[in-house]
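Fold it.
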Amino acid sequence: NAGLDFSFLNYRMRGSFDFYNKDGKNIFNYRALDPTTGFTSMFANVASIRNRGVELSLAYDWFVPGKSNGFSWTTEMTFSYNQNEVTKVNNPAASASALIATPYREGYPVNALWSYKFAGISDGTEGYEGQTLWYDENGDVRRSVSGRSIDVLEFSGQTDPKTIIGLNNSLRWNGLSLNVLMTYCGGHMMR
């Protein structure tokens, strides 16, 4: 990890920049179990991960409260970018349902989204107009998701945002305050 703090104009403008690269081992999360055991899941050490990213923070005091004027206005901006990756899986998923339940797969993000491969909507040539079609593990088109292999799934993105940006304006005057916060999250998928 490395960081830099800075300030200018008698601390009126200030900020920080940080870079991090963190490896985590024995990540504790749910692990799918065979339902014949009487349980569907349990907490276990399931994977190792790597988080790598940058964080930037900037602040500027537009108005500093003086002795005769109690008004102040500060703008703060934060930016972060994080990329995570599963580096090791203790018990890799062997079926599609297990990979969806515990989405850890080496080389992919921690909270990866896995989807069945969509083949379109039936045009009715087989007598089933308007039905959803899926690809099986052999690449054949089927009317139902019948494959149990993880090959019937495709990576669809991740649920954790890669980029988060925040902008806050703080106005104060004689004991009153108004804060306006705007945020942006991007680089992720939502279901």
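DSSP finds one helix and eleven strands in the chain.
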